[in-house]
Amino acid sequence: MKAPVRVAVTGAAGQIGYALLFRIAAGDMLGPDQPVILHLLEITPALPALNGVVMELNDCAFPTLHGVVATDDVNVAFKDVDFALLVGARPRGPGMERKDLLEANGAIFAPQGKAINDHAKRDVRVLVVGNPANTNALIAQQNAPDLDPRRFTAMVRLDHNRAISQLAEKTGALNTDIAKVTIWGNHSSTQYPDIHQTTVKGKPALSLVDQTWYENDFIPVVQQRGAAIIKARGASSAASAASAAIDHMRNWALGTAAGDWVSMGIPSDGSYGIEPGVIYGYPVTVSNGSYEIVQGLEINAFSRARMDATDRELREERAAVEHLFAK
Ligand code: NAX
Prior knowledge:
This protein is of the alpha/beta class.
């Protein structure tokens, strides 16, 4: 067994938290030989519920769970952590404008970014799940001036996994037959699920499905999947979101498969014409714990228009929260 690492999860008593913590504790995220100490953050009124979750975690007697810290103090939650999964966020209430939502989340993610800056390990890996995930990640990043900005990422992996599953179903293939799917941009309905480079059992996906299905079925189904789950379940995606968060962190820590890539929301660096300043979904490979954008992909006019539209939305979100950035 290796030395334990510390993993912070915020919103730990919420529904994603309930689907996520047991899998992290069981070794699904970092492997069966990597013990973890969980740092669980909640708001004060949710601490009794969180205590119940901690009791259940203990009752599993996981070999890889070496400790649990449950707290409502951000400074305790992020102390010496190697990984931070920021799940807790302010949901959109009735009549709430997008601007109010961004503002309410700024009040959560600015102090969390500062606490990560002040207390986490210098090579901490941060994944923001709480919506609006890309812009919340940007707020946290911009409040952590002492850390490498590339340590802050946002989750588009659920969209990536949804795209794989839709395409596998359509082509009668297995999920593992699908490679090189990309989610560009924002985790929102402007995201662009791109299958121009995707292969199914090594064959180009676009030679197996027609363009009308791609444009009129696949893209909107992936973009609107979250809303479809809410309609069907009466609650937003939880287990699938938790599973995607595990996938994101596992690939970031342990690497991606040869001949494939994954989608991660990461700081834009000018690649593919997306200027620096936003957290944008890109195709990435990971080796030795470091992610790199897949370069040199051909971008046609269809893709360009969609990549630019989701970029525009992210820049509008950025403009609405820039006053929350540390000076
Ligand atoms: P829940 O409302 O079940 O849980 C959220 C938890 O966060 C609550 O227990 C709440 O007390 C806690 N919380 C609120 N403010 C906090 C703070 N300042 N510090 C610590 N904890 C705090 O929501 P859940 O279904 O778990 O979803 C969590 C977030 O994930 C939401 O913002 C949701 O929109 C987002 N999602 C993101 C997805 C993605 O792909 N990026 C997909 C799934 C999900 O919709």
